[in-house]
Amino acid sequence: MQVLKILARFSQRPLPGLKRVRQIGLAAAIPVGVLAVVILVSGSGESLISQGPIQSGHSDVACAQCHLPAPGSIRQQMQQNVRYLLGASPSHADFGYQPVRSEACLTCHQRPNERHPIYRFREPRFQTAVAEINATTCLGCHGEHRDERVAVEPVFCKSCHAKLVLKIDPLDVPHDELIAAKDWSSCLGCHDFHGNHRTPAPIRRLDAHELDALLAYLKNGSDPYGHEKIYQAVMK
Ligand code: HEC
Ligand code: HEC
Ligand code: HEC
Ligand code: HEC
Ligand code: HEC
Questions:
Q1: Is 214's C-beta closer than 6 angstroms to any atom of ligand 5?
Q2: Contact 48/4 with Cβ under 8 angstroms?
């Protein structure tokens, strides 16, 4: 099994893969890459090389909807990589599959009301914040194959909202007090991140969701904000 996982990694991560290619020799490595691609494409191989459990919301999402085939034929990709290895080309080609990108997620998760759209954070003024929390890509906070919804600590709001000032603050414990007390895990207790849940934020600190409930949700537990969402993912 382990061998198959490693073979599969070959087709996924071209750069480290190619470094290894240099080590173990071109002749051996290219058939290995082809084998990995064949396994990934053939349905029967899926469970063999899957890295870990897919999160529950994705049980109906096919591998190929996140793992898009690399451009060009296998033959062209191999030729390009051989040229790269021989120093005749400055760049390598993705082999078999592209790395997973936010664009794949957005084919199903595009939302017009997004509170924190990833493209905004590519602006230079977010550079420092993004060094702490990479909000420019879905994979900065979400992974897959780990059976969890969100892979970041629930205090990451501090990277961008440390200077938050509200003109009129409706809270019994106002935002500036929460921030002065570094009560950063309270934020997700009242606000979801994407703004996709219908339930409005409460105004009493005591009504914020407890940290335990939040951590369970970020892992794979039930949704404390309730199940009424503005947008459901669209299966494309
Ligand atoms: C919802 C999207 C999604 C689905 C569905 C999905 N994957 Fe993945 N997969 C990912 C992400 C994200 C990574 C992490 C690698 C990365 O950062 O590009 C990954 C990593 C992998 C890796 C390891 C590659 C590496 O570079 O470490 C393999 C192999 C893999 N997936 C196979 C599968 C197979 C087989 C299926 C179907 C059973 C599947 N995946 C379904 C998103 C997905
Ligand atoms: C083929 C469509 C499709 C693709 C591609 C896809 N998703 Fe999903 N995703 C869904 C569906 C369907 C659900 C469950 C319904 C919902 O939550 O709207 C879901 C749910 C989720 C959830 C919530 C899980 C839950 O159970 O509450 C997260 C987080 C998520 N997706 C992130 C991602 C990320 C990150 C990517 C890209 C790596 C991605 N999705 C790619 C269709 C997709
Ligand atoms: C800076 C961190 C961060 C980034 C970047 C991020 N997310 Fe999330 N995401 C979260 C957190 C935290 C939650 C849990 C709170 C919530 O439900 O809003 C979440 C929840 C979700 C959910 C389930 C709740 C819902 O809104 O339906 C989906 C689906 C989702 N994210 C998809 C995505 C996709 C797709 C991208 C990229 C376009 C993305 N996320 C980028 C942090 C992030
Ligand atoms: C990478 C930077 C970044 C991070 C991290 C971040 N935010 Fe934001 N947030 C923003 C920006 C930018 C806005 C828009 C402010 C504006 O338009 O004036 C915003 C807006 C908001 C809004 C107001 C939305 C509206 O519709 O008016 C809320 C609520 C919010 N964020 C909560 C959070 C919470 C809770 C977290 C942590 C879970 C968080 N944010 C993390 C940058 C960020
Ligand atoms: C007790 C619940 C609660 C907590 C805790 C809380 N908020 Fe709020 N927040 C609200 C309510 C209610 C509003 C006003 C209505 C709205 O925007 O939903 C608000 C408004 C906001 C806004 C919009 C400000 C504007 O100018 O319109 C941002 C941004 C925000 N909160 C971020 C945060 C951050 C960051 C934290 C953590 C330090 C946090 N909130 C903690 C309930 C809460």
A1: no
A2: yes
- For residue 129, pLDDT over 90 is answered with yes
Closest CA to 105 of 143, 138, 133, 147: 138
Percent of the chain predicted with pLDDT > 70: 79
229 forms beta bridges with 197
Q: What are 216-229's pLDDT values in tens digits? A: 999 999 999 998 99
Domain boundaries, the chain: 2-99, 103-219
Q: How far is CA 103 from CA 82, 109, 212, in A?
A: 29, 9, 32
Query: What is the pLDDT at residue 49?
Result: 56
| Ligand minimally distant from the alpha carbon of residue 63 | 1
Q: Which residues contact 124 (CB under 8 A, 6 or more apart)?
A: none
Ligand 1 atom at minimal distance to the Cα of residue 13:
26
109 in ligand 5 pocket by Cβ < 6 Å? Answer: no
**Mean pLDDT computed over every residue of the chain:** 83
For residues 186 and 201, what is the distance between their CA atoms, to the nearest angstrom?
Answer: 11
The residue nearest atom 41 of ligand 1, judged by CA position, is 63
- Are 28 and 35 in contact by the 8 Å Cβ rule? The answer is no
